[in-house]
Specification:
heterodimer, A: about 110 residues, alpha+beta, Translation Initiation Factor IF3, 2 helices, about 35% helix, B: about 150 residues, 4-stranded mixed beta sheet, 4 strands, about 45% helix
Chain lengths: ~110, ~150
């Protein structure tokens, strides 16, 4: 699966459009992480455990989107956008959406 | 009385830890930025990208970071809220976080030739309904990394 966030796939030609695909995930921080992050909150700095959580969430959202695209028999997703929103304190939603397309390599 | 002493001690500690952490972080960011200068080239807002050169690989690259402010900065900001004006302590937090996220993205695409249409998405994680809660923000930077095939001639 080729993923891009521009309107085409460089070096390839778009053969058919399959439609909009999307994937979302909501992740909450757990109590153990929360304790460490609470201390970090006072002194400041990057919250490494939350960063990992966000990476996981982003991967999940992308994978769900890719599964949808596979069902539509697409081999690439173009124009991918991420949208994020805070639902409650400490829980974040990551939403990924894009256009599933069928591409083929330009010969020559 | 005890509360006031506790507050002053907390402010002193967080002032030192916060400024040390921030200084170190900025130093690291600068070093990494110098190392990665123009490697890969990065463009923002190029939706239509066309090239005649042979392309080897196209992939989506991302970098994410969650960062929080410290207690001292929050205290200063809440004082500043009375008078208005620039909230410099929070500016530096967001600046740090965005640069860190971009750097993480670029490090993942270190072998690529160009990153097209880099975008930065921000979300605040703290509860805005609790007054004086320390701000935390999550930032995702993403873009399309394109690697040219240098062996093939046009």
């Amino acid at each position: 699966m080729i993923l891009t966030n521009i309107e085409s796939v460089p070096g390839m030609r778009i053969k058919a459009q399959c439609g909009l695909v999307s994937g979302s995930t909501v992740r909450a921080k757990n109590a153990v992480l929360d304790f460490g992050a609470g201390l970090k909150n006072i002194v400041g700095g990057e919250l490494k455990s939350y960063t990992e959580l966000l990476t996981e969430a982003r991967n999940d959202a992308l994978n769900r989107m890719i599964e949808q695209a596979k069902k539509l028999k697409a081999n690439a997703i173009i124009n991918i956008r991420f949208a994020t929103s805070a639902i409650t304190s400490g829980a974040a939603e990551v939403y990924a959406y894009g256009t599933a397309v069928e591409v083929e390599r330009i010969e020559g | 009385m005890f509360d006031l002493i506790f507050l002053i001690i907390l402010l002193c500690i967080t002032y030192f830890t916060g400024s040390i952490i921030e200084k170190n972080h900025f130093k690291k960011i600068k070093q990494r930025e110098i190392r990665l200068i123009k490697k890969p080239i990065i463009t923002y807002g190029t939706k239509r990208f066309q090239t005649n050169r042979p392309v080897k690989k196209v992939e989506l690259v991302t970098g994410e970071v969650v960062i929080s402010g410290d207690y001292f900065k929050n205290f200063v900001a809440s004082l500043k809220n009375l008078f208005g004006g620039k909230l410099t302590p929070f500016e530096s937090i967001l600046d740090r976080a965005r640069r860190e996220a971009l750097l993480k993205m670029r490090e993942k695409a270190a072998n690529a030739s160009i990153i097209v249409n880099a975008r930065i998405e921000t979300v605040l994680l703290n509860n805005i309904y609790i007054p004086n809660s320390v701000p935390q923000c999550a930032i995702i930077a993403y873009g399309t990394a394109i690697t040219y095939d240098n062996q093939k001639k046009l």
